[in-house]
Design goal:
208 residues, mainly beta, 4-stranded antiparallel sheet, 13 strands, 13% helix, globular, binds N-(carboxycarbonyl)-S-(naphthalen-2-ylmethyl)-L-cysteine, binds fe (iii) ion
């Protein structure tokens, strides 16, 4: 006998981060993944290299007017994928999440697509390559669960961690927009959303 498992939606506030847990129901997550597949067929995932020459463990691509790039020349937003093609447009279904949660904000110009395999992580960092830091950032988690660490607007001090699950959406606005944050690890095989496993995180940002 098959069982349908679902979670109620809940809104948590942690250090100025608004965590909409269970925001996307499973059928909608599946539709978003199908949209992303179409994006990635035009702009495939690639492995960025830090300015110091170290390959990142996360694979990336993007949709929108700009994608975030890291290579030995530095970090920046670029209007082209490393292959030279323009990024695909941000799928309407993903823009809808932004409009629902931050209706007063400008429209996002970048949907960064991060893919985490079982050994991938992202060290504590600030997002500060965007020109208008008054605009929010919205993050969508899909696939395997990930341990998300939230810190402070300056380096150091106490941090708090939370497991993000498939369908969770986090809004960073106000002070949280400048907070240090990172992904310590993913929990392999904790979701069946992605056939080959792993985790996708989308971050929607205003760039200019
Ligand atoms: C807080 N990504 O791409 S999403 C990143 O799960 C990034 O892939 C992580 O950090 C991930 O830069 C974390 C949550 C997140 C995203 C953007 C933020 C938190 C943020 C921007 C400002 C402050
Ligand atoms: Fe970040």
């Amino acid at each position: 006998m098959a069982r349908i498992i679902f979670d109620a939606m809940a809104l948590l506030h942690v250090r100025g981060f608004d965590i909409h847990s269970g925001y996307l129901a499973l059928p909608e997550q599946e539709r978003v993944v199908a949209d992303l597949r179409a994006c990635l067929s035009r702009a495939p995932l690639f492995q960025p290299v830090t300015p110091r020459g170290k390959p990142m463990s996360v694979r990336m691509s993007a949709a929108g007017d700009y994608g975030w790039i890291s290579d030995p020349r530095g970090y920046r937003y670029e209007p082209h994928h490393p292959s030279g093609v323009t990024w695909p447009p941000i799928p309407e279904r993903i823009l809808k999440i932004w409009r629902d949660l931050v209706p007063e904000a400008r429209l996002p110009e970048c949907c960064l697509i991060n893919w985490y395999g079982e050994a991938a992580k992202m060290g504590l960092h600030q997002d500060s390559d965007e020109a208008d830091m008054t605009q929010p950032v919205v993050s969508v988690s899909l696939g395997d669960e990930a341990l998300f660490r939230m810190g402070n607007p300056t380096r150091g001090g106490k941090t708090e961690s939370i497991w993000l699950r498939s369908g969770d959406v986090v809004v960073m606005a106000g002070d949280a927009r400048r907070a240090y944050h990172g992904i310590d690890r993913v929990r392999p095989n904790s979701s069946t959303l992605l056939p080959k496993g792993g985790r996708i995180n989308l971050t929607l940002r205003v760039v200019t």
